[in-house]
Amino acid sequence: MLETARDLTLEAARDATAARRSATRGMSTVHLKKLLDSRSERDVLEGLRRVIAMSYRQEPTHSLFTHLIKNIASPSLEIKKLVYAYLLQHAESSPDTALLSINSIQKSLTDQNPQLRALALRVMSGIRVPVISQIVSLGIKRGVGDMSPYVRKAAALAILKCYRLDPGTEPQMIEYLAALLGDKQYFVAGAAVSAFLEVCPDRLDLIHPHYRSLLRKLLDMDEWSQLDTLRLMGNYARRCFPRRKRRVKRLIDKRGTSTNTKGFYDGSSSGSEENTSNKDAFYDEIILDPDLSLLLESAASLLQSRNSAVVLAVTRTYLYLGTDSHVDQAIGPLIALLRSASDIQYIALHNIIQVCLLRPKAFVPYATHFLVRSTDAPHIWQLKLELLTLIYPLCTSPLQGLILSELDHLSRGHDTLLVREAVRAVGRCAQNSDGSTSSRCLRLLLSHIHSPDGHLVAESLEVVRHLIQRDPATHQSIVIRLAKNLDTLTNPYARASIIWLVGEFAGIDPENNIAADVLRILVKGFVDEAEVAKLQIVLLAAKVYVHYLNLTQPTASSFEQSAQVKTSTVLAPNDDEDRLRESTFAVNKYEPDRSAEDSLKGPEHPIVVIWRYIQLLSRYDTSYDLRDRARLYRSLLAVPSSTQLASLVLLAPKPVPQAPSPSETRRDLLLGSSSLIVGEEGGIGGLRGYEKLPDWVKESEEPNPGLREEGFDNNYGEKREVSASEKLEVMESEKTLSNNVVGGSNTNGHKQKALNDWLDESDSEEGETEEETDEETTEDDSEGEGSETDEGEKVMLMKER
């Protein structure tokens, strides 16, 4: 039996393989036409499947279009679905042939099966032939009033397609949207919101009567509708709810005293202190509109959504519309997105950084979630390092030690990019912290100097240079310590950074600096240095020479000052003035000759000798840049007595370098937008289609809050469907008004009914109904010749009754 079973299994497998191959094997066009024209439903289905498979394989099927369209009138739902699928794909290529199926699709709109009606409406709106836009509009109108919510949802989605096909149908589409936005089914209202954002996003008057009902349906909508609704409500809230604030006094501190305690008899001399204490004692509290609070409360449950886009949308709503407490609620769900796939992590980290730039303190408890893992991709750990640097100044001392240890470990790795980013992260941590924490980071960077990794040493010294520039007076010892390492450092960029530091801070204490000695040592190996280091050595020589000239040579400014002092006094003889003028010109003109004479009298100063030696070495160097740079310095210092321009160029104070967060340029971009992820590559204004949130509406300019009442008539000129119960109420009120006018009137023209009158009417309601029926029958008989009684006579008859 086992062998028989084995044979049967192999045979079945061969048959299945043959059937699969035959299904994918091509068939002639003549055979396909016979299948499509067959009366057998099975043959037609087989032909349709083969034609659709050919179309997806991009094989030509235009010759079969007419044969396939004939089956659109088939009663089989499966055949119609396949025909509709083919029609949507090839309607634009053969619009004339596609129009032949419109009549059959219109007939399907009245079918008893709601699924078929919705499918017909979807196909009709998907045929992108502008000629049928009005026919599609009529089909949408029929779908809006359909009893099946499935068909109404298809009508809401068809509104968007019809508007794209023919923007001239916008007034009709707006009328249909006004009815669908108030639909009781949440999936119909969600589809209507999606169409509203595309067709008429500025017509907020359509949202007023349905605002609260949409919020009640928000939790039940599908995820895409939730995204569109939250986006709509964000714009609606900014334009309809003003941002109100009030001054609130702070609570009493732990010692039991208020922050603004001041005696009654205190003098008025400390007015500034009083103003300062008053500012500290009060803060601005945001007052939320009740309808805005309803939006924030309705969106709270969506933070537990399985869709990361919904979580980001709720966070955006809380960040731009809510208070700090609302933002704190969204921090945890945002952090939970880091457990997702790498692509979702990347998007989540960008949005977390955007929130962290505004509220970094809220992310301090989650610092361990931002530690780099060995499996993280470069674009992931770069964002994690940025987050660590943002929250570092607000962390406690143990947590700061943990972050620095993490950065130190990463900086000693083998990945060059990771080493560079880790060292720069340490520099940003030191830049944004106080003095004690900054010195801690500086010690960590200085420990990298003796590392065998040249990239680590170069990056560390670059960051150290930036930190020293922030407070050069307190870091002289560090500059000396760095200069001692010039004998062992081999990385040209590291040596260039140290040489620049020595030259930059040579003028802080001119009488006690090491710049000249460092220059003397470097000159010996000038020929063996790299070009980057040679440029800094030449710059160091120029700075040392300028400092020497400023100390030893009188400048033109000093002569001008002395001349001004002398001319300010009374000079009686003219020969004194001439003597002063001659002495001034003599100094400016013959100062170089005087220095030359002095040089002939005795040995030159070592700094002058080193300067000339550096100029001689640079003149015959192979680097064009180095020769040009040396020529520039030689021109600036050609006249030793005139060093003003040289001092201005070489010794000018340098601006303190700043290393902002890499995402600082994206601070103004909207949370959850694609432009936030793309960044600078999206352009200055973001990607095409990017829209910022509107500004908060000013007080007294917001719309009437009563418009959001569900029974409020907005009177915006839109036609509103009136139910049968409302029509009966209107007729009853008109009848009561006419009775009051005939029976009597008060000062306002209306008769006041007593309580007994109301009770008598309620008791005799059934009898009056029968009498009214008999009376109407009598009146119809008396009006056989077409005459009508006057309205006042009818009222009198009813009164007599």
From TrEMBL:
Segments of skewed composition (Acidic residues): 758-791
SUPFAM superfamilies, per database record: ARM repeat (SSF48371)
Pfam families given in the database record: Adaptin_N (PF01602)
Top-level division of the source organism's lineage: Eukaryota
Organism: Patellaria atrata CBS 101060
Gene Ontology cellular component list: AP-3 adaptor complex; endomembrane system
Name this polypeptide is given: ARM repeat-containing protein
Annotated GO biological process: intracellular protein transport; vesicle-mediated transport
